[in-house]
Every structure is written in C-alpha cells, then in structure tokens.
Amino acid sequence: MSEKITFKELVELIAKQSEQSQSSANSFISELVDIIESGLKSDGQVSISGFGKFELRWMKERTGTNPQTGEQITIPGQNKVVFKPFKALREGVNTPYAHLETTVIDPEKTSKKEVPNVASAPSKEVKASPVNNTGSNETIDDLIIERENPLRKEKKESEPAVAATVASAVKPNPKLVKEVQDKGSFNWSFAAAGIIALLAFLLLFYIIQRTPDTDRTQVSEQIETPVLPNGDAAVQPSDEPSEVIDEPPIEAESSQRGEFDLESIQITPGQSLWTIAEAELGNAYLWPLIYHLNQDIIDNPNQIPVNTNLQIPVISNPDDLNEFELDQVARGYLSLYQWNRENNPDEARFFLWAVGVFSTDLLENLPSEVDAEDLAFAVSR
Amino acid sequence: MNYKELIDQLSEKTGNTKTGTKKILQDAITVLSEQLEDGKGVSIPDLGTFSTRITPERKVYNPHFDAEMMVPKKRVVEFSPATGLKEEVKYLGKENE
Fold first, then answer.
1. What is the pTM of this model?
2. Which residues does chain B have within 8 Å of residue A85's beta carbon, measured at their own beta carbons?
C-alpha cells in the first residue's frame, strides 16, 4: 500500500498516546532503534512482545544477473534483516480480509463463487468446537451418513479392506459443497446461510442422499476439506481421519522383539499425535502407538500437553511392521477405543474395527469386555 | 535478545523505570500497529520502513488431504531495513566466508 505517514506524524501520535513530549518520544524511538541494532549484532535477533521479531537471516551466495548489463554476477552470501510480525499484528493487519477462508478447489467444477460461500459457513462451526465434534448437530448428522455408506457398500462387495472412513467432522463439508454444486445453483451469502438454514439444508440433503445408493460412495471417497488444519495450539481435533489403509500384512515375518527402543521427544505447539507419528514413525496412522506408550501423560489423545516429553518407539520399517509392532499398534487402537467409549461413544467402534486391521488375534482375544454391538461391527468387517 | 533484555537496556539508557519504559514501548507499538492496520506505512530512521502489502490469492497443495486449496488474499506486514542497518549487519559473523 502506498499510503504512508511520516516519521514526524508517528512521533506526534506516540507522544500523545504515552502523554509525553515529542522530543522525549523522539529520543525514546532512537534509543530503541539503537538497542534493536545492537541486539541484532549480538544475538542475531530481537523480540518485541506484542509486535514482532527482528532477526538476521543468512542468505547464501547465489548467482544473479545485472539488470543493466545482463551479465551474470555472483552475489556473495550476506545477512538480511527480516521482521516477523507476531500473531496479533498479523491478524490486525489482515482484518479486512479475515473473513476469507481457504477453500478446496474442485478440479471438475470451477464454480468458484459457490464454493467459498458454502464452505466458509460450516468451517466456522468446526472451528468453534475443534475438539469435540459434538459442537453442532449438523455436523454429526452429516457424519453419520458419511460413514455408514462406505461400510455398507463394502460389505456387499466383500472387497478386502478398501480405505474406509472412520471419522471426520471436516470431511462432510466438501460433500456438502459437492452436493450444492451437483444440485445446482444455491448461491447463498455467508451471512444469510446461518446455522439454522444450514441445518435445514443438511436435513434436506440427508433425505435426498438416502435414495441413490451408488452416488454415495463416490462422494465419500473424496478426501478433501475446506478447512486447513491451523496449527495454533497443540490440539488434535477428534475428527482426525483415522482412516486405515489396506495394509494387513498380519502374517508378518520374524524379528520379533519384546519391547520397543524408545526415544524421547518434546511436544511443541501445533503438534498432534497424528503429525508426530507422521514425522517420527513415518506413518501417521500409527499414532495410536504413541498414545498407547504415553497414556500416563496423555489424558485426551486429541489434546496433548505442550512441552512435555513423549516416548516414541523406534520402528524398523513403517511399511512392514513385525508382529509385535502390529500387536502394539492394535493395542493402541484398543486404548483409543476405550477412551472413545467414554468420551466419544459414537465413533468408538471404528477404533475397535482398526484393532482388527492390525491384529485379528487381538480382536479375537480381547483382554477386556467390549460392547457387543461394537464387536459385531468390528468383526463383520 | 528477548523482550526482558530489551526493556532492561532501554530503561537503563532512558533513565526511566522498567515499568515506565514498558508502557512507553507498548504505546509506541500500539500506535505503529494501528497505522499498519489502517494500511499505512511508516519509515523509522536508521531502522527501516514498515508497510503493508496484499498478497494475492494463490493455489497450494495440501498433502494431508491430497487436495488443491485456494488460499485467499491477505494483507501482510512488510519490513525493509534501512540501508545503514543493512550494511552494518551484512557480513556479521561471516567475515571469513
């Protein structure tokens, strides 16, 4: 933006705000600048609370072109001063566009006008209740449809475990988006399509949805979501796609060990068990293993405590787990089943089902009592 | 240098109390932030220029969901350091390279 105020105006405003003379405000600023400079020189960085962080970044040597002569030149490595605004400032500055949401691009349809509107409405709701998807009835209604479809279909076709959907509160949204696109031209503004309208829509779609059976699976296979996981807190939404891939090498080979070698890592903000498993174990679907080994410090698998240490097992090959590892992953899913029975009963059975994916032995010889319906569901798969 | 060290040094130089220094610094930040939030830039001598810029919407690929996504346009803070500062720190700690 080209609009600017002069330094003099800035000083006047600061003097007014802090009730001091302009000259003292002026000298305050120049002292501040001196200190920032000396801080950069001594530490390479200066943080100012509530504002941002200045830091030096080393730019490697690179080749460039002299724009006047067109000749190739080598630009030597050098430090660059960068300023990284903190969240409050970033958000403040972005206020005019804060209502815009990241949206999924549907490659087939390019009706962009519809997508943002519809997508932004439900994503707001999801944000409002990132941990428990009990936050809104709409989402749950939708969830149920979403999940039951692939299961029923698979049974009929008796295919080997194709990607089955376990749960995602965000996942229903794209379906909604697609529905809207398919059914035609609902061009609702975000403001107008309030929660009540949304509920009405979902019910409507639910009814429509029930009729064409084939249509459903097609939709549910799409894994997309209009909401980017925003990594502000170490919160892992319980709507985690705990989808299990078709990898049941249950007759795994030897090299069986009695226990894991453990490594310790510290949880940093923004991490979830899912992302840790992806980074440390090489397969995000193994996250229950971490939960299993750290149950003493993790109360809620969807919300892990920042700055505590987690025990991470060392896994030989995430694509080819040995029997012991499979068993442990299955036990992890079993622990999650038990946790979900208490806290999220609607979805618990999917975790039980996942137990069987990793270890049929364990599912057949469960160490504790489980709900008969859940077991029937898990076994029937 | 963290915030506390900054306040310590600043209050030493200005002869003000730490609380007083903190307050003035936060006032200055408030004023500066307000200007940026209004989309106005400002140059601070020997430090650099703060301004805002609009990044256009862009496509990204999200591997987690295997989907292309459209990130909306955003207004962001830009900082370009003053020439003096830039030269001062250019080869800092890397003199031998």
1. 0.44
2. 76-77
Beta strands in chain B (DSSP E): 41-44, 48-55, 58-62, 67-71, 74-81
- pLDDT tens track for B27-82: 999 999 999 999 999 999 999 999 999 999 888 888 887 888 888 999 999 999 99
Residues A215 and A285 in one domain: no
CA A268 to chain CA centroid, nearest Å: 15
B23 plus B61 within the same structural domain? no
- pLDDT mean across residues, chain A: 69
Q: What is the dihedral of CA A305, A310, A316, A317, to 10 degrees?
A: 0
Interface test with chain A among B16, B25, B59, by most A beta carbons within 10 Å: B25
Q: Is the pLDDT of residue A245 over 50?
A: no
Q: At A61, which CATH number? A: 4.10.520.10
In a domain, B95, yes or no: no
- A47 lies within 8 A of chain B by CB: yes
Q: Which domain holds residue B72?
A: 41-89
- Percentages helix, strand, coil for chain A (3-state, rounded to 5) are 50, 10, 40
Would you state the pLDDT for residue A86?
A: 94
Residues 35-64 (B) with a CB less than 8 A from some CB of A:
35-48, 50-54, 57, 59, 62, 64
- Residues A256-308 have pLDDT tens digits of 456 777 888 888 887 888 888 887 787 888 888 888 888 888 888 888 888 78
**Around B69, how many Cα atoms within 13 Å sit in the side-chain half-sphere?**
24
How many angstroms separate the CA atoms of A122 and A114, rounded? 13
Same domain, B49 and B83: yes
Cα Dmax for chain B: 57
**Is A224 touching B (CB cutoff 8 A)?**
yes
